[in-house]
Structure formats: C-alpha cells, structure tokens
Amino acid sequence: MNVPNDTIVAVSTPPGRSGIGVIRLSGPASQTILRKLIASESFDPEPNLLTLKSLIDPTTGGTLDQALVCYFKAPHSFTGEDVVELHCHGSPILLRAIVDAALQLDARMADPGEFSLRAVANGRMNLTEAEAIRDLIDAQTDSALRQATRQMKGELSDRLQPVKDQLLQIIVRLESSLEFVEDDLPHLEVAQVLRSLAELRSSLEKLASTFSRGKLLRDGIRVALIGRPNTGKSSLFNMLLGHGRAIVTDFPGTTRDTITESIGLDGVPVVLTDTAGLRVAGDEIESIGVDRTKREAADSDLLIVVIDGSEPLTEEDRGVLSEVTGRRHIIAVNKSDLPTFNLNRNENAFSALDTPTTIVTLSAVTEDGLHDLRAAILRPFMNSNHSAEGLMITNARHHDLLLRTIDAIISSEQLLQTRTSEELILVGLHNALRYLGEITGETTSDEILGKIFSTFCIGK
Ligand SMILES: Nc1nc2c(ncn2[C@@H]2O[C@H](COP(=O)(O)OP(=O)(O)O)[C@@H](O)[C@H]2O)c(=O)[nH]1
Ligand SMILES: [Mg+2]
C-alpha cells in the first residue's frame, strides 16, 4: 500500500465547544512542528508522557493556549509513525488557529480516516480492526458497540486465519500432487480434499449467515407510523419512545410535519418516524406534511398502520390500508381500552390485504400491547437461528467477500468432483484465498482502501 511520507494534522475531537479539544499530528515532521509550536528547539519530550506547554503562534509570537502535549515515538503509536497530540482547550476558533499554525509549519490537513489508513499501512492493525474502530464510533446501541469491540480486538481476523491456513495447505497439496502425478489425482486424495473444502465452506457459510442479524445491529431499521389523523400515531410514537415527544391532541391534523427519533429495541437501532397522517389536506402546511409522510413511508423498512379500533373503518382507513399492499407492515389496532373497541368488525378488511399481515391490538393510554408491538417490529427482520451474542458479520463488504469466497470454493469443488481441470481448480482456490485476504486488507487494492477510509471521520 502506498502512503505518502508527509506529516498530517487534524482536530480529532468533534466540532463545537468542549472542555478539551485534541489535535493530532502524524508523520516524520511531527516532533519538529511540536518544537516550533512551543517555541523550544531543544525540547526533547519523553515519549507517551503529557507535558504542560504554552503553544505559540509562529507568525506573531503570541501565546495561543496552554496545552498538554504528548509525543508518541514511531513505531509505538496509533499510526506507527511519530505522532504528537495536543490536548488544548475546546474552543473551535482556538483549535482552528492551532491547526493553521501547524499547516504553516509544513503539516498537511489529514483526509478522513488518514490516521487509520496509515495505521493499517504500517501494520499497526489490519483492515477489519480499523473498520471496527469506525463502527465503534458510529455504534448506536450497546449490542452494536459490543460487536465493534470484538472486531476491534481482531476476533474476525482471528476467525478467518485458520481458514486461510487450511486453504493454503490444500492449495499446496494440490499443487505438489499435480507436479508428481502424470495423469489424474488419485481417488483418495480427491476425496480428502473434497472433505476439507466442504468443512471450510460450511464454517464460512455459518459466519456469512450471521450477517442478517449483524447488519440489523449496525444499520438498524426505519419504521414509519402512518394512518388517518386521530388514530393515535403520535400517542404510540411517544409510547415507543418512552416520553412525550410528539404533540397529542383531539384535533385531527395536529401533527403537520414528520418527527423522527431513534430508539433501541433488543439492541437493534430503530429510527422511528411519526407522520402527519395520510388524508386529503385541509391547508398548504398540512399538504406539505402529507407529501413528507408519503416520502417517509416510501423510505421505510416497515410501516405501522395505525387504526382506531373503537370506530368502524373509514374510507380514509381503507385508503391507507390499500397503500401498504406489497410493503412490509404491521396493523396496529389502537384504543383497546375503549368500550366500543371491536377488532372483529375489521377482520374482513384486514384479511383482504394480499401481503402477509401482522395485527397487534393495543392501547396507547394503558400501554397494553406495547410488548407485542415491539416484538412485531423486530420479528420480520430476525433470523431465528441466531442468538444476539457470538461474533457477527456486521459489514456488507465483509459479507460480500465471504459470499465470493464461498462461490469460488463451490466451483472448485464441482471441478474437482468432475475432475475437469486441475489448473482451474487451483485458480478458484487462489481466488478464494485472495477474497479472504481482502477482508483483512492484505490483498485489498489501494483504490478500495481509499474508498473505505473515506467513510471515516476526519481526525481518525
Ligand atoms: N382512549 C384512548 N385514546 C387514545 C389512544 N391513543 C390515542 N388516543 C387519543 O386519540 C387522540 C388522537 O391521538 P394522536 O396520538 O394525536 O393521534 P394522531 O393524529 O394519529 O397522531 C388523542 O386525544 C389521544 O389522547 C388510546 O389508546 N386510547
Ligand atoms: Mg399525530
């Protein structure tokens, strides 16, 4: 991997005011730049120790800040290069001024993820570990965080290593048999290789199948509450959130805009949207709200159609129900606490829907049925084979490469069974090995690496 040999700088803490803000430098000039920033050419910092210093503006000579500075000597740093951290006061203007000073002293502004890219290039971590740090930073629930931590510690690469070793052994065995055997591979040899390949494949298939759950943990699901006004969408939204976020009134059309909040359900991040409801709008604001509702509904993974079970279905209700045909949805029949509540009278309308339907009866007032609703939201996305624990594939890139590895192994198995062409069998197995190497970064092209690291934060 080609990495430039210059010195980069970035603010590593989030934008905005804070107690402290950390600026990070990495590259051969880090220490020289530090000396100039503290106006002390002879400063010989002890690695890994914080020292309190005044930061000086190199052009004006004025004091910028009092900061704790720390030097990490290559290769014992995050990036494997000389690194300097400046723990300054967390003023955005101050941090900008210090970064500007470093830029004048020949540092370059770091690209997103460039510190991590250098860490991978210098062998401080592998690609899956770097990606796990990004996932850790982005994690939205405890479960997603736990998965990221496991992968950051190298669990995924550790799991893949024996597979790679075995694959390599098989390749070596096949290659040497080919050299010595005049005609075909002996029967016994073929049977053994086939058995080993089947074992490898099944362990990879097992790992790949955890992706449905792993993806869910990382990306979550988008859920929209839809229905005619006054059925209790905002009340249910607040109930799922656990606090009163949306305004609830008796007046139809109160919710005029969409409101979105995130909740965690069983460790799965759920982005929940309360909508203005679908109806013929009374005025312009409401009509914009209704348009947004339609857009929001189109973007969602799951729709919750809220029906007022204390009243007969109206034309508007039927209109909403007709819009969910072909979409993943739940019908939430609300207001079960009211004496006029009657589920049965609507059953015909529900059973007329041609998509599989889950019906949940509930009350936003008594919170009866809340548990059922939460379970119904997750059910369509859960693969019952998987527990919430254990190592999971959470990254689409890893999943895709696992599937390619499996395909390559399958095609080699088929060729081996029919004894078609030994060379082609080997090509397939070499491909499989390369795909596995792309997961951990050994065989990933610079272009792909660039794409991956561009999704990281600045300063990471
Ligand atoms: N009795 C009863 N009233 C409810 C229930 N859910 C909502 N409501 C009432 O129905 C009215 C409309 O509720 P709201 O959540 O604003 O409906 P939206 O227009 O669909 O968002 C309000 O007066 C709520 O208090 C319920 O489960 N039981
Ligand atoms: Mg509302």
Quickly list its features:
6-stranded mixed sheet; Four Helix Bundle (Hemerythrin (Met), subunit A); 12 strands; Gyrase A, domain 2; alpha/beta; binds magnesium ion; binds guanosine-5'-diphosphate; Rossmann fold; 460 residues; 3 domains
Describe the structure.
With 460 residues, the chain is an alpha/beta fold. It folds into 3 domains: 8-125, Gyrase A, domain 2; 133-210 and 392-441, tRNA modification GTPase MnmE domain 2 (Four Helix Bundle (Hemerythrin (Met), subunit A)), CATH 1.20.120; 221-381, Rossmann fold, CATH 3.40.50. It is 45% helix and 17% strand. The chain is built from 16 helices and 12 strands. The chain has helices at residues 30-37, 92-104, 114-121, 127-138, 142-152, 155-180, 187-208, 211-219, 233-241, 284-299, 315-323, 347-351, 370-378, 396-418, 422-440, 446-453, and strands at residues 8-11, 18-26, 50-56, 63-72, 83-90, 108-109, 221-226, 259-265, 268-274, 302-308, 329-334, 358-361. The strands form 2 sheets. It has a 6-stranded mixed sheet, with helices on one face. Strand 3 and strand 4 form a beta hairpin. Helix 6 (155-180) runs antiparallel to helix 7 and helix 6 packs antiparallel against helix 15 (422-440). It is flat and about 85 Å long. The structure holds guanosine-5'-diphosphate and magnesium ion.
